[in-house]
């Protein structure tokens, strides 16, 4: 029987930042269940915890020098799963416009498919996070949080509408930016 040390790739991949990313993925079904069952405060707390793991995992990976290939793969997937399931659920519950959810989901689908296509052709990981991409993710998360808080505080309508439009604009701009990057790589 082979025993792996912490320096081996499997031990290295189960570091604290990756555990936080996996926790974020595992929180998603609970968030959706609480939201659908109208346990609004619990849903907000679970979403906030998931968002906190998103902020902490990257910070800890850099600070503790625990960056890993698994983390660079899992973190964006965890973000996309959390954001897209949140938007989809909030649109189904009529708490956010369906057209907005479709724009976010379509952009992410195009990015994932484009990245997979480029990776399959020349084995390069193409879409490293950019400032505009990170800004878009942050704005989308804040929009979800505002939509959730709007369930408790109806007076947030104006702020929510502003963030929906801001997130829409950033989603489109970042999507076009990633498409441009992909085309540049293919040229």
Describe this structure in words.
It is a single chain. The chain is globular and about 50 Å long. It is mainly α and 187 residues long. It has helices at residues 9-13, 16-36, 40-63, 69-92, 98-122, 131-152, 157-186. It is 81% helix and 0% strand. It is built from seven helices and no strands.
Topology readout:
Elements lengths: L8 H5 L2 H21 L3 H24 L5 H24 L5 H25 L8 H22 L4 H30 L1
Helix pairs in contact: 2-3, 2-4, 3-4, 3-6, 4-5, 4-6, 5-7, 6-7
Please give the oligomerization state of what you see. Answer: single chain
User: Any guess at the CATH architecture?
Assistant: Up-down Bundle
Secondary structural class: mainly alpha
Number of strands: 0
Number of helices: 7
> Roughly how much helix do the residues carry, as a percent range?
over 70%
Distance between the termini: 49 Å
Tell me the series of helices and strands, N- to C-terminal: HHHHHHH
- What is the domain tally? 1
Beta-strand fraction estimate: under 5%
User: What's the CATH first level?
Assistant: Mainly Alpha
Largest sheet composition = none
